[in-house]
Every structure is written in C-alpha cells, then in structure tokens.
Amino acid sequence: MLPKNLISLLWNFVIFITFFINQSFGSADLIKQDLSLGRSNEPKNIIATSIIGGSHLPQMLEILKILKDRGYNITLVAPGNFTARSTNYHSIPQVIFNNEYYDRNSHEFDHAFLDNDFFKIFPVMINAMIQSYVPFYNIYKQVNDEINADLFFCDILINPACFDLAWKLGKPAVGISSDLSELTSSPYKSNPILGCHANMENESFYDRFKCAIINPLIKVLVLRGPLKDLNAERASVDIDPHWDFSGRISNRLMLSNNFYGFEIPSSDSPLHQNIGPVIPDNFPDLTPVLDSFLNDHPRTIYFTLGTNAVISPQNIIIILNSFLKLIDQNVIDGVIWSTLRTDTSKSLQLANSNSQIISILIMNTAKCQGVKDENGGFKVDNENLLSDWITPDTRMGFIKGKYLDVYGAAVIIFLVLFGGFTYTLWKIIYFYIKFRKENRDSQKSLNLNKKRN
User: Which SUPFAM superfamilies does the UniProt entry name for this protein (predicted)?
Assistant: First the structure.
C-alpha cells in the first residue's frame, strides 16, 4: 500500500500535467470555459428602469445601445417620451408612464432645489420615493411578466422597487448613477450635500469627526421613520423588509458615470466601478453663427447645462466665478453660457476692470498659449498627475488615513457616556433601594413601638 503523502504527490503531478497539456497543445475544450458565459442563441431580455427620467437616461441608454447592437432585447421603463424624440436612442423601445409623485415643475420641488438646502430637498425626494414605490413596483412587475427579463438595469435614485423586484424574482440587477458617494466606505471621502468637503484629507479633526461620526448618526435617526414607512409599502406587495436605506444593493454591480481625476480616488469594492465619462458619440450641431464664432475663437468655452438641469443661483455664481478666474489668469479668452437665466451682474466682477460681463458672452482680449517650459513644450506636473490616482490616505499617514484618531475618539466618548450613564443609573437604583430599606426599617420600628404601647 502506497504511503499517503506519495498518493498526494502523484495526484498533484497529474494536475500539473493536465494543465501543461492544456496550455501547450491548445486543448481548450479540456478546461477553458466558453467565452459566451452560457449565452444561448436566443437574445437575453433586459429591463432598464428610472423613476426620474430626463437627464438620468442618457448614461443608461448609451450602455443599452451597445447591448442592443450585440443582440440583447432592451426595454426602457421611464417617464416621458424620451427615446422616440431622441436622435441617438430612438431604436430602444420605451414603456411610458406619468410620474405624478415626482413633479419637477411643482412649486415645492422647485423651491427646495433653488434654495440649495439639502434638508428641504431630502424630504421631497423621500416622500416621492415612498409614495411611488407600489405603483412603480407593479409597473415593473407587469413589464417583466410580458418579457421575462434576465437582467434589471436600475437607475439608483429613489428606485428601490427595481432592486426589490429583481431580488424577489431571483434575477441579477445592475445599478447606475452619476455618484456613488453614499455607497463608498472610504472615510476620507464625504458628501458635500451634507456640508462636508468631498476630500477630507486636509480638514481639521473636528470636521472629520463631524462628517464621519455625527452626520451619519443624524442621518440614521432621521431615516428611521421614512424607512419604516418604506418597509410598510414593501409589505403591501409581499416584499420582506430591508433596513438599509440604500436598498438591496450590497451585492450588486454598481456603475458610476464618473472617472479618475474628477472623483476622489479611493479603494472601493470591486462591485463599484467608475465607467465614465459616458457620453454620446455625437451631439446636436450648434447653430451656424455659434459654430463660426467658436472656430474663429478657439480659446472660447461653450458651456451648457442641458434642458433637464436644475441648478441653484448660488451654484451658478460659483461656476461663473471659476470661469472669471480662468479669464483673469489668461487661460481662456471667454465663455458662452447658453442657459444662464440668473442676473449675476451685481455678484461678479473681473480683476481686469476693462473687461465687461455680458449675460451670454464673457470675453477677455489677453492671449496665452498655455504654460510652457524653456524649450517651448508644455509643462506637465507629474506629482499633480499622479495625485489623481493615489488615494489620500497614503498621504495622511497611518493613523489619520485610517481614521483611527476619529474612531478612537468616538469609542472613548461612547465609553465615557455609557460609563457615566451606567454609574448614574446604578446610583439612582442604589439610593432607591437604600431609601426603600430605610423606609421599611422605620415602618417596622414604628409598628414595634405601637405594640409595646
């Protein structure tokens, strides 16, 4: 009988020979899988959904257009007759519905966005999500009953019904958004909507503590009520409750229309992928007058937000100030702003008083061919270039980069508060028991004196 370790050695040798033959002689059928990943000759069915529609659709439709060209059956479920009116996506069929719960033209919605106040915007969005959950779940379910989807492609914003239906049916789902900041686990990245900087690398300890500990706790407390209401809506369509407000997306592939150099670099889950910028192959042509002007003035920027953009006057001022700094620094000659409707003449001024601000066209006559070195070539700062790829925690040091100081302070504060609460509670119980005992003893003593008398 062969020794046990000899049998193991022979078995490993057989495995090695098998791999060697497969790689050397091209016997691909022996081990390698089919690259089609199980695709049959029949096209796969994909349902793409969005509650918002409008500007949230192009990033989805660019991907869906590629999948359709490869033979997949695509069905878009979204408000508004978007694909039929589009020159780029008219080949994609769309199930159209009216979203009465999310009206971007309503006074409440418009007022919340123009005030640029997150605590006004948030309740409007949450209320729309809860009220629209059951109607949209039923719409998605009806469409799925007709086409039997193999994959759900979901716009993330206020669209938990899409992920819940995919979970209920046991089908895969992919999410897409322009921003996955709410899903990232890197502490040095924060959400500017909550009053924090996007990059917390150079912020004070107090700001880092507030954005990493206090704000999430406030968010959890604020979301308890809406999450309970959302689970009640889930129960009405026989969906189990889920206590993560982001939805059933923890094990889903999430795509972000973002890119390195614009987004703060971070070490995230491989399920979270930056695939941007996702833009169409072609855009509608400019008018002949604009096209001729831009050709004659190559250092002029044409800026547009599109017809679906909602932007506050405060953010308009910020963008225009950035353009004005570029003009003052002779980086560009001017900007054509095609959708500006806010009067900014009293809020902005150029360092060069001879230049004038016009609501549509901003011009500066100074010329500059860029920053060049002594040989006439353009300078490239490798340190700045690499900073777009290096995560901030490597520059913050081990303790600060891992947020050990913030988390350590949070643990100490918790222990102090918990210890103080426990000690206070113990003192109250102790004095209560002592008071009851003294009261009982005095009552016994009083009864004993009465018996003696």
Answer: UDP-Glycosyltransferase/glycogen phosphorylase
Please give the pLDDT value at position 432. 86
Percent of the chain with pLDDT over 90: 24
Distance CA 337, CA 260 (A): 26
DSSP string, 341-393: -S--TTT---SSTTS-B-SSEEE--------B-TTSPBP--HHHHHHTTS-TH
Chosen domain end from 274, 307, 335:
274
Do 188 and 308 fall into the same domain?
A: no
For residues 387 and 433, membership in a common domain is answered with no
Cα(62)–Cα(277) distance, integer angstroms: 11
Residue at 137: amino acid letter = Y
410-413's contacts with Cβ under 8 Å and 24+ in sequence apart are: 410/209, 410/213
Q: What is the DSSP letter of 264?
A: P
Q: Tell whether the torsion through CA atoms of 394, 395, 397 and 401 is positive or negative.
A: negative
Whose tokens are 């700094």? That residue is 325
Using the 8-state DSSP alphabet, how is residue 287 labeled?
Answer: P
Considering 17-21, 74-78, 368-372, the range whose residues carry the highest mean pLDDT is: 74-78
263-313 pLDDT, tens digit each? 777 777 888 888 878 877 777 677 788 888 888 888 998 887 754 455 667
